[in-house]
Structure formats: C-alpha cells, structure tokens
Amino acid sequence: MKGYGVVSQPVAANPGATGGPTSRSYFSQRLRMRYVDWGNPGAPPLLLVHGGRDHSRNWDWVAQRLRHKWHIIAPDLRGHGDSQWVDDGNYTMTGYVYDLAQLIHEQDLAPVTILAHSLGGMISLRYTGTFPEKVRKIVAIEGLGAPPVKRAERAAQPLAERMRIWIETKRGLAGRLPRRYPSIEEACRRMQAENARLTPEQARHLTEHGVNQNEDGSYSWKFDNYIRAWAPYDLDDEDIAALWSRITCPTLLIHGKESWDTNPLEDGRAAHFNNAEVVSFDGAGHWVHHDQLDRLLAVVEPFLA
Predict the structure, then answer these.
(1) How far is CA 134 from each of CA 52, 187, 231, rounded to the nearest angstrom?
(2) Binning pLDDT at 50, 70 and 90, where does residue 19 land?
(3) What is the dihedral sign for C-alpha 223, 48, 133, 30?
(4) Which residues, in sequence order, are CB contacts of 19 under 8 Å at separation 6+?
(5) What whole-number distance in Å separates Cα of residue 256 and Cα of residue 141?
(6) Whether 96 contacts 103, CB under 8 Å
(7) Do 70 and 123 form a contact (C-beta atoms < 8 A)?
(8) Could you name the CATH architecture of 22-154+224-304?
(9) Which of 47, 46, 49, 51 is closest to 259 using CA atoms?
C-alpha cells in the first residue's frame, strides 16, 4: 500500500477480544492523521468514517462483523481520537474532505466503499460528489447534516451576526479547559448520558478509547474542544444539493426514527440523489449502529455485497 506507515501494536476491539486492529498514520496538510486497519488487505476496501466528538473505535462492533469480507480502515478525523489537532483551532468541512481524499489517494483505495455516520457522512457525501468515480457504494447513517428547517434558520441570520456568534464562541472555547473526570466510571456516565441506549459495556468501550489520562490521574476526552465552533459560512443548500446530485454510485441513507434529525424522504433531501434508498429504523436515535446493530447490518450487508 502507498503512503506513510507508522505502525503500533494491534489493539483488541473489545476487552478480552483478540485480533484487533493495527494503528497506522498518514499525513494531510502537515497533520499526522491516525487510522486503524483491520487487516485482510486482499479484500475490497471499506472505509468507516465516524461522526463529531467521536473516534474510529466506535465502529469496532461493525468492524468485527464485516472484517472477514472487507479490508476495513477506520480513520480518526482531524481533532478527534488520536489524530493531530490543528494549530489555529479552525475545523472546516473543506479540511475534513481533504483529509479523506488524502487517505484514499495515499493508500490507493479507490474505488472504495464507505460507511459513515453523522459528520462523517457529511464529509463522505461531499467527497463522493466531488469524485464520483472513486466511490463504489456509500452508506450514510444520519449523515446529511442539519435538517432543512435548521439550515434555513441559520441561513436567515445576516452574515455579520453569524461572524459575531462564531467569534464569541471561539473566544469562549479559548478559555475553556478540557473537562477532567476523576475516574473512567465518571466519564462512562457522561458517555451514557449522551446516548441512553448504550449498554454499560458499550459505554465503557467507547469511553476507554475516547479518553486520555492526565498526569494527575484524571481523564479527559481526546477531541479538541474547538471542533464545537462551526464556521460562520459553508456551502449553501444549492451547492450541497449539486454535489449530492453528482453521486452516481448506489447510496443508502439511514435514519433513526427517534433522532433529532428528520427523515430525508419526508423533508426532500433524498430527492437530490440519483440512486438513493432511505431506510428508517424504529428504536434508534442518532447512533443507529449502536442502537440497532443487528437490524442495521441485516440491511447494510446485502447492500454492500
């Protein structure tokens, strides 16, 4: 494989499990980016792209089920997991898309299949619209971004107001120290509060891979707090729809019926895709791959095959 190979010891996907992924690195815009490689390099490549304030190991349950048929690679987005933070604290969609493009280019993965969640879905769909010939199939779990009503509310704000809010948010984050938890158990409770459907085992696993231990023995989340500040401007709805309309590969849009997001079939977003199917899941919120893993894979595996 092409690229920069910095290898560490394999890490078990679950406590007590064997044959976990290997940690590797690549470079993008001078940032050292990290991803985990689940082996099986002779199989077709499958990228698993996580969402905001998350990390690559949130896919471990999916990877364990699919690794024997696919060469699974799961990156940490910039500012997340074990990937480097940007010096100026500015996280943009263009930066995220560039990182994904570099990983696919440097590791010679195209045509690649992508399974992505939330922010990872937004990034992956924009990449696919930019390079439709490089993606074989794509699944986006709650990955279309804010619902149209929320985007319209934001677009209605004058740019000067959005700029002022962004500056004030950044200034507030500059004075915000990473929260410290006295124990893994305390951090787990915070993780479970974010998604009450997580089992204690899931919450523990996600927490263990999502924190660093500080010198005083406390624990802090790995992600950079600056990722919370969204840029005051981005592509408008027309430009995003134009990118979606360029996607030629089969596309599967997954929606959790109990999520804050709206159904893309009902709100009109699915109409911008040429070859998309929408599947909604009962008993699932924003993290469908955690809330309904078996049911999700029963839909996703035949689609990917």
Answers:
(1) 24, 39, 28
(2) confident
(3) positive
(4) 10, 12, 13, 39
(5) 8
(6) no
(7) no
(8) 3-Layer(aba) Sandwich (3.40)
(9) 51
Compute the Cα dihedral for 243, 82, 218, 206 and give only its sign.
Answer: positive
Q: How far is CA 53 from CA 98, 115, 131, in A?
A: 19, 17, 26
Q: Rounded to an integer, what distance in angstroms lies between the CA atom of residue 298 and that of residue 280?
A: 13
For residue range 236-287, list pLDDT tens digits in order.
999 999 999 999 999 999 999 999 999 999 999 999 999 999 999 999 999 9
How far are the Cα atoms of 18, 33, 297 from residue 288, in angstroms, in the given order?
25, 26, 10
Instruction: Provide the pLDDT for residue 12.
Output: 41
The secondary structure of the chain in percent helix, strand, coil, rounded to multiples of 5, reads 40, 20, 40
CB-based contacts of 138, cutoff 8 Å, min separation 6: 113, 114, 115, 116, 124, 125, 128, 247, 249, 250, 251, 252
Sequence-distant (6+) residues with CB within 8 A of 149 are: 262, 267
**Range with the poorest average pLDDT among 21-25, 43-47, 229-233, 265-269:** 229-233
The model's pTM: 0.94
Based on DSSP, count helices (H) and strands (E) in the chain, helices before strands. Answer: 11, 10
